[in-house]
Design brief:
GMP Synthetase, Chain A, domain 3, single chain, 2 domains, globular, alpha/beta
């Protein structure tokens, strides 16, 4: 391992996660932290996109488990609490540890990639945001603290203009005193407990249900998490509204992470639409919020 090599890690808040992060940083490697509750769909996409040299994960934690088929192309797969009876190319995490601590750190360019953070957003798949060693403090709209871009060049081209400004997609108002208030998002996602959920990703999974003719996923108010996903469905002729249990079973089989599952279902004969036929999600969000207030 050395500068520029990619190390992916999917672990809960364990000491092994911290050891992997800092060891990789000292070696000048690029760390790809993967949320531990991500399922097969997200994990497979991230591993295919980041193409790590090393992947560190756990044999099992809660609903998370080792998927050897998804990491078959990764040269080194280290497993915390590896099942002694497991066959295959994986190795126990402790076998990756050196006998002696590293003396110092390897020199790296501060502007070189240090972390690739995959974050859910408006696209179907998580977006790989590339940070250098000097951009890990915070993000601004332009300047040395801004991320380097995305792994997907097309996403980078869409988000950054020719002068280096990053277009966040936030909609805001500027008052007379110069204070900026964020009032909406141009992008279409739900922020559940700080986690971005792509509405499009969930909608595409819902549309594979035989009972669903059309689906819209919007944010609904949540007293604990701020907001959660709500599914608004136009049903196929002759079908009844699926139960939450039926919908969740379908989304689980589709490999969608649990935190992205809608937590309420609303059926409509048709959607409110613009003159061009686009679903007016702002109207759906308003109606759902009004229903909660009235309950």
């Amino acid at each position: 391992m050395g500068p520029g090599d990619v190390v992916a890690v999917q672990l809960p808040n364990w000491v092994e996660a911290a050891a992997t992060f800092w060891a990789s940083t000292f070696l000048g490697a690029v760390v790809v932290p993967i949320v531990h509750f991500y399922g097969r769909k997200e994990l497979g996409y991230i591993l295919r996109t980041a193409r790590p040299k090393v992947f560190v994960t756990a044999e099992r934690f809660g609903r998370m488990e080792l998927h050897e088929d998804l990491c078959a192309e990764v040269p080194i797969v280290g497993v915390v609490d590896r099942d002694p009876g497991r066959r295959g190319a994986t190795v126990d995490f402790v076998d990756l540890l050196a006998d002696e601590p590293l003396a110092g750190v390897l020199p790296v360019d501060p502007a070189s990639p240090a972390v690739i953070a995959f974050t859910s957003g408006t696209t179907r798949d998580p977006k790989g945001v590339v940070h250098s060693h000097q951009t890990l403090v915070f993000e601004t709209s332009r300047g040395p603290d801004l991320c380097l871009g995305y792994l997907d060049d097309e996403l980078t081209a869409k988000a950054f203009d020719d002068e280096g400004w990053y277009h966040t997609g936030d909609v805001g108002t500027l008052d007379a005193d110069g204070y900026l208030t964020i009032v909406d998002r141009k992008a279409d996602f739900i922020i559940r407990g700080g986690e971005n959920i792509s509405a499009l990703e969930v909608e595409e999974a819902l549309l594979t249900m035989p009972t669903v003719a059309e689906a819209a996923v919007v944010a609904a108010p949540d007293p604990r998490l701020g907001e959660h996903a709500a599914a608004v469905l136009r049903l196929a002729p002759g079908h009844e509204v699926p139960t939450l249990a039926q919908m969740r079973a379908h989304l689980e089989a589709a490999g969608l992470a649990r935190q992205k599952w809608p937590e309420e279902i609303h059926a409509v004969a048709d959607f409110p639409r613009t003159a061009s036929g686009k679903i007016q999600k702002a109207v759906l969000r308003r109606d759902i919020a009004a229903e909660q207030v009235g309950e």
